[in-house]
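### Sample
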Amino acid sequence: MPMCLIVGCSRKTGRDKGIRLYRVPAVVTKQGPEVEELSTERRRLWISVISRDDLTEKILNSDRVCDQHFHSGTAAPLWDRYNIDWVPTLNLGHGKSATQRGQNAAREARAERSKERRKRQAEQQEQECLLKQQKLNEPGIPLADFASEIESSSTPGSEQVHDETVDLQRDEQETHHSSSTQTEAFDYLYRSVESGSVKDCPRNDASTQTEEFDYLFTQSATSKPFDKNYFREDNGKVSFYTGLPTYEVLEATFDHVSPFVKRRTQSLTLFQEMVMVLMKLRLNVPHQDLAYRFGVSQSTVSRTFAHWLLIMDVRLSPLIRWPEREELWKTMPQCFKFSFGNKTTVIIDCFEVFCVKPTNLLARAQTFSSYKHHNTVKILIGITPQGCISFVSEAWGGRISDKHLTENCGLLNKLLPGDLVMADRGFTIHDGVALKQAQLVIPAFTKGKEQLNPTDVEKTRGIAHVRIHVERVIGLLL
């Protein structure tokens, strides 16, 4: 049975299923000097890359080279000299040089040292944490006694008490120098009490510094900004910060998206992360502002926003769907029935969102909007007569026209014969809509006319009366 000639490759027919073997090219002698020279060169290169000391003509004639050593799995033809598979190049089984072996050994040694170093650091940090925890649980000076001593030292004729108090403070500093973490944390929380951020703290009832610290730490941990308790009883806050109508909708959105979010930071809960993203989308506040509000770094805000935005796009995009015609007919509002019957399928319009000026000159030109006089992205939105969003296009550069955007965003492919599309004057897409055997309704023009005739006036009034709904939807988005 033929076997593979490559060193270290033991594949052979009969045992390995689906294997393909290729002969070492022979010298072609009866098709001209050029073919003979080319075949000779190819045979020489094959023998060179096989690189075996025991090669004989018998072995070359009986054994083969398997498909595992070609990029495409097939040897290239003789005439295709510049194909990468003209000669075997993969998994040739040549031993590594001494230099490579030395480099690999050094790399492994560095990795081992790094592993040991990380292990020692982890053990050291664990020991420090245990030591700090022990010192944290040690009782301190009673606050009431300490405050009374300070007050007594400030009264006339109490120099001796004052000196004792100073000595007491000096001894306390020397004794508790190693517990600076506890003191700093207590000072921070004590200032929070004085400033009013932590209220109703029973300092007079706390007999020791440890009890005081435990109480303040508990109060600080439970008062997190923008958590569920902050929004639970106030739909006004939900609407202002997130754009969602009620807390129930906010919680349902969170339950729908959060299972697919991988935690990025332990500083915030998943709910706080989603609220932060919605606040950015709703209020467009700077990242630095969100960092101050949530007590995290600006880079954390940026990473969280980018991560959540992708997942929200994947999870929430399927909620925007194109309704069936029967659904539209059953739920058609009376104002549409009166003016246009049951034919109205979608009301379309475009809106623009400001964006950062791109550094690329071409992108800068494509995003500059002559209407907004700013770099923007333009998006086409379609709503049903009931006011539900049924279509949202991809974001395009602000320079693009409404007509080009509508014809290339995929909206026309959803139309059925007999559908009615309602749009503004800038959507001159009669031809594209007519190809779908649908109808376009836009307000009448006065171009070339002194005034509109009464029929056009009534028609335009009816269009304006119902098109206001899409403007309201866009207003809710922005």
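The chain has a mean pLDDT of 78. This sample (THAP-type domain-containing protein) is used throughout the tutorial notebook.
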